Amino acid sequence: MSSFLVNPLGKLSTPVFRLGLSASYRPGADTVRAAVDAGVNYFFYFGFDTHMTGPLREAIRGRREQVVLATGGYNWLLWQSNLRRTLEARLRQMRTDYIDVFHYLGVTRRKYWTPRVADELQAVRESGLVRGVSISTHDRTLAVELLQQNKLDAVMIRYNAAHRGAEQEIFPHLPATNPAIISFTATRWTRLMRPAKGLPKGARVPTAGQCYRFVMSNPNVHVCLSAPASRAQFEANLAEVRRGPLDEEEMAFVRGYGDAVYQQQKYFM
């Protein structure tokens, strides 16, 4: 059963709280534990964010099937991960037998989806050590192609009030296999929460929570990743998303603000 706050994670089916947690801004182990206590169960971890390790080990102890662990290997400019080696390292780190969603991260352009990467990710998919594989990409056409070819079980995409192309280029074209859609940068790296050029001084600015509610108001998105820098930020975000979908007035405001931000810096992530 789906709702604004909880739904099945696409074809992987595990019920997830739709506000996921990343520790990109190092909110601390206490924040991770607070998220677990609040019902958050989709966690994206990098492997080097070790303050997540202890709380996540505690979270999966005795209830592994209720927690979704997402991680992955990287495409960083001239260096690419060995995906199987990265997977095995994450399994050891979390002391678990499987990862729920394993991403190949940083596929910003089609040229990074090479035959070697495709083969490695397929081998990971067939290993029995993951429940699903995914890529993180800005190339919407590539994402749709790979989903329609059933080469991925999920995809992680940029979607926010300033970058809404997925509404035309991805969501209407999702295959019946029901892949999981995970969104990131809901605040456009905080740009949606700062004054936009061209608007009157003192003009209203969206809150982080409104940015998350905007993303979560789209039923195609299974999980919206958040990256608070503190427990106070996490709790503020949580309180706001519990208000439910944006109403028509709020939606018009956030979309309009997103348009203003997009016009400032169209190509900034």
The number of helices is: 9
CATH class type: Alpha Beta
Query: Major sheet: size, sense and barrel closure?
Result: 8 strands, parallel, barrel
Distance between the termini: 33 Å
> Quick one: CATH superfamily?
NADP-dependent oxidoreductase domain
Number of domains: 1
What general outline do the C-alpha atoms trace?
A: globular
CATH architecture: Alpha-Beta Barrel
Structural class: alpha/beta
What is the rounded Rg?
18 Å
Structure summary, number of beta strands? 11
Mean pLDDT: 93
CATH level 3 topology: TIM Barrel
Proportion of helical residues: 25-40%
Fraction of residues in β-strands: 15-25%
Uncertain segments are: none
The strand line-up of the biggest sheet is 3-4-5-7-8-9-10-11
Instruction: Provide the succession of SSEs.
Output: EEEHEHEEHEHEHEHEHEHH
Provide a descriptive summary of the structure in words.
The protein has helices at about 30-40, 55-60, 85-95, 115-125, 140-150, 165-170, 210-215, 230-240, 250-265, and strands at about 5-10, 15, 20, 40-45, 70-75, 80, 100-105, 130-135, 155-160, 180-185, 225. It has about 270 residues and is of the alpha/beta class. The chain has one domain: Alpha-Beta Barrel (TIM Barrel). The longest helix has 17 residues, at about 250-265. The chain is globular, with a radius of gyration of 18 Å.
Write a concise keyword list for the protein shown above:
globular; 8-stranded parallel beta barrel; 11 strands; 269 residues; TIM Barrel; two-stranded antiparallel ribbon; alpha/beta
